[in-house]
Amino acid sequence: MALNLPEIRTERLVLRPPSAEDFDAWADFSADEEVMRYIGGTQPRSVAWRTMAMHVGSWHLKGFGLFSVLEQKSGMWIGRAGPWQPDSWPEPEIGYSFARYAWGQGYASEAASAALAWAFETLRWTNAVHYIVSENLASIAVAKKIGSQFLAETSLPPPIAPEQKFLVYGQDR
What we know:
This protein has helices spanning 23-31, 45-62, 107-121, 137-145, and strands spanning 8-9, 13-16, 67-71, 77-84, 93-98, 127-132, 149-154, 166-172. By secondary structure, it is an alpha+beta fold. Helix 1 (23-31) packs across helix 2 (45-62).
């Protein structure tokens, strides 16, 4: 099955589905303890490969998934952001996470905003949320910056531990 895979360009970024050329940067990102602190913990290279393959597979199974985010100027992979809804996930999510060298530059809000607009316009989503660990103040700030508001606190389905609570921020189209 041939897919028409999107590419989104913002003022500074390119968002496109992940590809094999992204893997070394993805694996480094996945091994960084501070980066992975709120998103499941570090992953060895072999698990990072499986995680990336899962996100690539989401594009084939659902027609959407997290985008690889590249700096437009340098072409460097700096993170991932985009629509995400694994099986049993309560609501469609716009997720975002970036390599530490990309922090503090507004990339997360720029990418998340573009991904949200794409999900609303192209996928025709009527709403989107962000599941955020309460200690992740930077992620909460990004959610607020792109117009999301606090909605609730929840747990997520396995393999997420049931005792792990998430704040739900979201918005309607």
